[in-house]
Structure formats: C-alpha cells, structure tokens
Amino acid sequence: MTDTGGKISTLELARLITAVENSEITVSEACSRAGKAENSFVIGITGPPGVGKSTLLNHLIRDFRATNRTVAVIAVDPTSILSGGALLGDRIRMQTNTGDRGVFIRSMATRGHLGGLTGKTTEVLEVLKSAGFEMLIVETVGVGQTEVEVVRVADAVVAVTSPAHGDEIQMMKAGIFEIADVIVLNKSDYKGAENVMRDLIRCAEGLNRNGWSVPVIRMIAAEQQGITELRESIDSFLAQGGGSIGKRSLKG
Amino acid sequence: MDKKMIRVCVAKPGLDGHDRGAKVLARALKDAGMEVIYTGIRQTPEQVAETCIQEDVNCLLLSLLSGAHNHLFPKITALLSEKGRKDILVLGGGVIPEEDDEFLMKSGIKRVFHTGATTDEIVAYIREQIPS
To answer: Which CATH number belongs to the domain containing residue A71 in this structure?
Structure first.
C-alpha cells in the first residue's frame, strides 16, 4: 500500500504496469483498478548517458520524501536493437529507498520507441497517478540531441549535464537545453566545470520561459551537493504553474 | 512489441563485492532478448525482494561467492513467498558447493548453477521454465 492512496498493494500495482506495458489491459481499466489520483506533478530528468541522472534521482527522491510527498519513478533504459533485450541498470543507484512504501521505482525498456521514453510512458504515468503518487519522476534514457519527448509528458524538465559534454555551440543547438526548466551541472568538481558553468548560465539566460528564469545548479550528486537546491527550484517552478503540456507551445 | 517479455532480476545479496559473473550473466540475458534488472552489489534480502516485486520479474538469479548462500538465499525466497511472489523462478549461482544444493532447493531455489556453467545453459534453462 502506498502512503497516500492506500488503495492498491505494491504487488498489484507492479502487475498492472506490466499489463499496461504489454497492452493486455486498457489504461482506463488499469487506472480504475489502481485507485484515485491525488494532486500530482510529473518531473522529467534528462541528459546524456553517464552524467549522473540516477544518482541525482536517488537523492532527489529522499528530498521529496523529507518534504512529505510520495514518489514514483519510471527509469528508462534502451532496448537492444540486436536482441530485443535490455539491461536496466538505473536501479543500482536507487536502492537506498527500500522499505519506504511511499516510493515506487519501475525500470522500463524503450522497446523500440525513439524519443528518450518508452511507448507506454504516458499510460504508466496515468496508472501511477491513479495509485495516489504525488511526485512522478521520469528518467529518460541517456539522450543525445533529439530525444526531447519528455517535454510532452513533464510539468518540469530538468536537463543534467557534466563538464566535457561539449562547448557553448552544443548548448545553443536545438535539443535538451532548449526544453529545460532547470539545468544541472553535475560532477561540477571535474576539470573544466567553471567554463561549462559560464556557458550554461549564458544558455539559460537565452531561454524564454514566460517570466521564469531557468536556474543553473552546480551539483556533485555523489556527495549530495546541490540536491536540495534542485528540489527547491523544481518546487518554485511548479508553484509558478510549471510548464505543463498545455502551457508549452510546442511546434515540433 | 506486445509479446510477453521475460523480465529477470540479477541480484548480489550480502557483502560479497565480486560481480563479474553477475555482469557477464546480465549481459548474456540481455543478448538473449530478455529485460534484465541488475541490482548492483551488497543488497539486503529486503532490497532484492522489493526489487522483484516492483519490477514484476518472472525470474530471479542470485549470485554469491562468499559462502553465505545458505543463510541469504532462503531469506529471500521466504520474503518473496510472504509478499505473494512464490511463483518467481529463483536460481542460484556463484561459488556454491554441490552438497548445499539439496538444502537450497528445499528452500525454494529451483536450481543451482555451479562454477563452469555456461551462460547458454542458463539462458536455455530460463526459456524452458518460462514459456514466452
């Protein structure tokens, strides 16, 4: 049972998600079985492979829990184009929340879907909302430049990068920085961080978010530095109305 | 891709930090077309059981080289039963003396793969046990 909802067991929820993922059941059926939705927000965490998205997320979960909100996570990893199998390894970094019934984590494989998410992400998010979770976090696959689908499902998008992921021109291109509501420079103790930080701030200043100035957060996720600042930034963005799908004007 | 997918959890319970075998196996299962959730090293029985429940896996592979298998494996199978997932196919592997097989199998481990077992054997066994 989840803390808030208390309507469905973890086991039942896990099975419902499988059924939705395998198209054995309709979303509306799954949602009605899952329970009744609470007020919820969807947060997307995106960025290149290996920048520390899962490590950051592990600590962010704890920070949301410390502020009394339940958390459900969908962690997406790629399906092999050769075998159809997948190695879902995001959970390795997220094992510190065991035993907390207010946290539910599910790994999902892309199963051939492009864009950084799985073909069933929206549906599974609906089920998790119905199960009563308040903060829904989607961790995308490690993305390149064009996997920006997360912007279509998230109320707030966090783009994570690290030093050594390209110069200022990379940040000026269309792609993940352009959709970011909050930017994180993780591994900010690495060489070159100062320069990248400066470029990111300039990039953020050029983003037009209807009065929201996109913050750039220095982070060392492995040492839990910058996590609370990130959580506070997400909360302020959401408090200002967030960037929920209807409010973004997407043209692509 | 709407066919039923075999979802496997590869877990390293206990304090043993040697996970080369688990990683080789995880990769082989991925290459065999399965979805593999790897827990990483130093997991408690509770962490392993909860991962299996939340991820709704069909199969759990426990790898242990430290000698604590008789203590840890039954704890995990007991937790799975308690949580309603007695149906998960649980397999053991690592450095496990053959004389422990009987005890482990009585504790809910379906089969133990000993040193020298090939990844092909393990993949074939899982496929045979879990028709997709």
So the answer is: 3.40.50.300
A129-158 pLDDT, tens digit each: 999 999 999 999 887 767 778 888 899 999
Domain span holding position B58: 7-127
pLDDT at site A248: 63
Eight-state DSSP code of residue A155: S
In a domain, A245, yes or no: no
pLDDT, one tens digit per residue, over A32-53 is 999 988 889 999 999 988 899 9
Beta bridge partners of A204: none
**What is the predicted pLDDT for the residue at A73?**
96
Pairing of strands A86-88, A156-161: unpaired
Instruction: Mark out chain A residues that contact chain B at CB-CB < 8 A.
Output: 9-11, 14-15, 17-18, 22-23, 79-80, 82-89, 91-93, 95, 98-99, 104-107, 109, 111-112
Structure tokens at B55: 């991820």
Full domain range(s) for residue A167: 10-240
